[in-house]
Amino acid sequence: MSRGNAQLLPSSIMDSAVELLSVTKVFRHRPVLFNWLGKERSGSTCALQDVSFAARAGSVLGLLGPNGSGKTTILKLISTLLLPNLGRVLVGGYDVERDGNAVRRRVGFAVANERSFFNRLTARENLDFFATLEEIPRLRRRQRGDELLAITGLHDAADTLVMKFSTGMYQKLGVARALLKRPAVLLLDEPSRSLDPGATAHLWSLVRQAAADGSCVLLATHNFEEAVQVAGEVMILKEGRCVAQQKIGSGTSVAELRRTYFRHVPAADEPPLAAVQGGCA
Amino acid sequence: MKLRAQWDKLVAIMRRDLLTVMRHRNGFGFQAVTLVTEIAGAFYLARAIGPSFRPDGIPYYPFLLIGTAVYAFLLSGIGSFVSAIQEAQMTGTMEVVLSTATPPPTILMLSACSAFAGGAVTLIASIGAGALLARGAFHPNFFAAALVLLLSLIVAAAVGMIAASIQLWLQKGMAVLWLMGTFTGLLTGTAFPVTALPAPLRMLTAWIPFTYSIRGLRVALLEGGSMAQVAQPILALAVSAAVLLPISMIIFARVGRAVRLEGSLSFF
């Protein structure tokens, strides 16, 4: 099993699977009509501010940070669901803004939202549907779906409508879906949030295996143990900025990572929204 | 290979839609009951009005049936573009579907094709039942009818793309569609001839492509109209398609970019 190191570099490197170059992302709040009736905030939120890094194929990069620090925004930028206001996001050398189709062919995304399936289809039917959209050849589609259902421990629930799934089962299916096309870049947004300890350990081995098979994995998490178990390197985000990065070696302990984290993100900073309101500096 | 992949996607989307409808259990039955009620409603309305009312020289029942069935088919097709976006936003599938290898406009088009196919079944059932109830009133020219319908579908797809863009941008695609449906339903001659409208509104009807769809299909299905007789509706629909389709694609691409920049892709 591999946990190769992500290379956190502010400059472009040729062999990186993912590169962010001075990326700034701002969310503007559109003023509403009759805003005097139930006041809604206006202005903008700076989700990412001048963030740069590169991650290589075969590596696992952990993204740590409080709620609203920009972890999911990074994943959405890489998957083309968002576009940067400033800077560039490259996947395998392709720009998310200009070459969106080429980027999407390389990226598998397990989103945090478990309501992301067709509820009146079974798990197998859902995977088959997404495998078709991912242009997996017809003959391999069913086989790949069954293989992933088995790997993620959903084989017995393959023909159950997903509306009857528990939250944890949804999460497993989300990971299976992200792995369908053996993506060059695998994005995982809090993938073990609702999993039991056994399933979590199994997920971690799956992630390590994906990296060993050559995928570049970006893992957004709040779980220090998960970061230590899976990532080769972690990046700590706070208020849309990268405030620290740390290599994770075989000797790195959860306590050590926790200390590093809280040195940069004091516990009092947890609700960061007020701090980031008003746009980027 | 590329064409086969697109075909596979269309089949996958149609299968998903069919399974979803069927697994709603009673929903399928309700749709069938609604269809029968509409056909019967039009039949008895025409009978109550009496045989002397022959708009454009056509018996009222087939006139009304084709007007309402075609208009409902086109409007629900346009609505399917909006509902494809709206449902994906509400069910949370929007982001994952749009992060697959299939480009967003392709997904939207294929979803709408699936909805149009479902609507076509209703349309054929409706007109077929009407033909049985009003034997002798139908003298179809199938080629002309197919041509008018095909061009109408292209126009409806273009309008649907614009409506979908409105849904993405303002999250109010259905409201705009409802407004449009109300006005165009009045102006396209679905239930009464446009000659009954005052002159200024009659001028407006000439600018609505679906007026030509309904007129063209009435001529093609009821009067066995030759190509020369349906030439004007076909020309009007072809020009509308040529103008609206590229415009709608540009709008959709621009709105798609804007919402990804704004981060409001899955807002509803």
**What is the chains' assembly state?**
heterodimer
N-to-C order of helices and strands of chain A: EEEHEEHEHHHEHEHEEHH
Low-confidence stretches of chain A are 4-13, 271-276
Assess the beta-strand content of chain A as a share of residues.
15-25%
Order of the strands making up the biggest sheet of chain A? 6-7-8-3-9-10
Average pLDDT of chain B works out at 88
- Major sheet of chain B: size, sense and barrel closure? none
Distance between the termini of chain A: 42 Å
- Radius of gyration of chain A, in Å, reads 19 Å
Helix fraction of chain A by DSSP (H/I, runs of at least 4): 25-40%
Percent helix among the residues of chain B?
A: over 70%
Structural class determined from secondary elements of chain A:
alpha/beta
Largest interface, C-beta closer than 8 angstroms, per-chain residues: A-B, 40 and 31 residues
Beta strand % of chain B? under 5%
Quote the average pLDDT of chain A.
Answer: 88
Total count of helical runs of at least 4 residues of chain A: 9
